[in-house]
Amino acid sequence: MQRETIARVAHEINRAYFASLGDASQPAWEEAPEWQRASALAGVDMHLANPDATPEQSHESWLAQKVADGWTYGPVKDAEKKQHPCCVPYADLPAEQKAKDYLFRGVVHELKDIPDAEALLVENEGLKKKLEGLSRPAPITAHSVSVTAAASIDGTPVQYIGRRSEWRDHLYGTGLNFAANQARNLPEATAKVLLRHADLFKVADGADVPVPDASTVTAEAQDDTAVLLEQGKQAEEQQQDQLTKLLDLKQTVSLMDKEIG
Q1: Helix, strand or coil for residue 11?
Q2: Strand 201-203 to strand 156-160: parallel, antiparallel, or no bridges (unpaired)?
Q3: Contact 228, 177 (CB under 8 A)
Q4: Cα-Cα-Cα-Cα dihedral of 164, 168, 228, 185, to 10°?
């Protein structure tokens, strides 16, 4: 968190603390004189530079700065005369003033690692762009599938016998489609999955399955089974990769929320 934000919070906590003791003379940060803001900022800088500094050392640092600026002890704080009742050694401070140094130190150390709102906006904008990128996976075409893979599948012949004129796989991620009565030669695992639906598929006569010529396989090949299977495989891998990235982003945002909360 920015030093000025930390100083502002520390100042307001100090103001609320003294108000609870019946002293309502402390001004709000926006109305505080420049010397008072500068004093709070100097205190923040001292604790950030010296994380092991004690409340007593914090007061000593404050006192040294006040003396350097010409302040002296006075029973009542008077900015014009540069007098302050705390311009005494730490041991001579009343308990409520010592408590103030403890509060100030605690605020600095609790807030220093919390990101600022502007930093969070920048980071969240980066996450948003990543999410937008994940929603547009790279297109898969038949040209990305090797001719060797498209030319041959050694497996089980499966024929579509359903009533519809066309069937497309929206459940198993194979990427396959069948026209009425079409037969395809499928890998054994894929064939077993489809053959579970006896009302839609049956083991076909091998003669019903077209055999493509490896030298002429294109996007319009006679048998595009291998192409479709490869496309389905790549699409499934892309979806899994996107899901993994989304879960990672969700965890990152969750950790950010915990740090801020």
Answers
A1: helix
A2: antiparallel
A3: yes
A4: -50
- Residue range 94-129, pLDDT digits in tens: 999 999 999 999 999 999 888 665 555 555 566 566
Six-digit token string for 11 = 């100042």
Q: What is the pLDDT of residues 148-164, one digit of tens each?
A: 444 445 689 999 999 99
In the chain the first and final C-alpha atoms are separated, in Å, by: 14
Q: Residue 202 in contact with residue 208, Cβ under 8 Å?
A: no
The confidence score (pLDDT) of residue 195 equals: 94
Q: Which amino acid is at 38?
A: A
- Measured CA to CA, the distance from residue 235 to residue 26 in angstroms comes to 64
Please name the residue ranges forming H helices in the chain.
Answer: 3-20, 34-49, 55-68, 95-111, 117-134, 147-151, 188-195, 225-260
**Residue 40 one-letter amino acid:** A
Per the CB < 8 A criterion, the answer to whether 195 and 203 are in contact is yes
Is the Cβ–Cβ distance between 182 and 160 less than 8 Å? yes
β pairing state of 83-84 and 166-168: unpaired
